[in-house]
Write a structure and sequence with these properties.
The protein is 59% helix and 9% strand. It is mainly alpha-helical.
Length: 160
C-alpha cells in the first residue's frame, strides 16, 4: 500500500513554507535583535520608515561583516537554540505585543474568506515581568458576521 500522492501545488507550497521557516530562523535574524540599536544609529532613520528600509540591508551587511568568527558561531548556536526550544521570555513578550494581534486578525479573516468560519481567540501570555495576561479576540464583526462575544457573557471566564 502506498501513501496518496500530493499534488504539485501543495508540494510547492509546503516547500516554500519550510524554506521561509528556515530563512526566518537564520543567524542574521537572531543577530538583528542584538544589534537593532546599532543598525538604527547607522541608518539614522526611525524604525519602519522608508529611509530605514532603504538603508537597512546595507547596515546589516556592515555589522555582519564586522563580526568575528566567534560571534557568528554564537549567533548560529542562538538561532538553533531558539528554533529547537523557544526564544527568551523578553523576546516572546515583544513578539506577542507587536505581531500576535495582526496574525490573529489575519487568521480570522482567512478562515472567514476560505471556509465561512467564525472564530473567537482566547489567548494567554506572559509579559516581560512574568505577569500572565489573558485576552479574547473577536474579529467576526469585521467579517460580515455577528460578534461571538455578544452570544454569551464571557467576562467570568476572562477574569479567571
Amino acid at each position: 500500500m502506498q501513501a496518496p500522492k500530493m499534488d504539485s501545488r501543495l508540494l510547492k507550497k509546503r516547500k516554500s513554507m519550510y524554506r521561509d521557516w528556515l530563512y526566518n530562523r537564520r543567524a542574521e535574524k537572531t543577530l538583528k535583535k542584538r544589534y537593532k540599536k546599532e543598525i538604527i544609529e547607522k541608518t539614522g532613520a526611525r524604525p519602519g520608515g522608508k529611509e530605514m528600509i532603504k538603508n537597512y540591508q546595507g547596515a546589516v551587511n556592515a555589522i555582519m561583516g564586522g563580526l568575528c568568527e566567534e560571534q557568528l558561531e554564537e549567533a548560529k548556536k542562538t538561532a538553533i537554540e531558539w528554533s529547537s526550544k523557544a526564544p527568551p521570555t523578553d523576546v516572546q513578550a515583544e513578539f506577542t505585543q507587536k505581531k500576535a494581534p495582526g496574525m490573529m486578525k489575519d487568521l480570522a479573516t482567512q478562515l472567514w474568506r476560505q471556509a465561512g468560519m467564525r472564530i473567537f481567540i482566547l489567548s494567554a501570555w506572559k509579559t516581560e515581568e512574568g505577569e500572565v495576561r489573558i485576552n479574547g479576540m473577536d474579529f467576526n464583526e469585521h467579517s460580515e458576521g455577528n460578534s461571538f462575544t455578544d452570544t454569551k457573557d464571557w467576562k467570568p471566564m476572562l477574569s479567571e
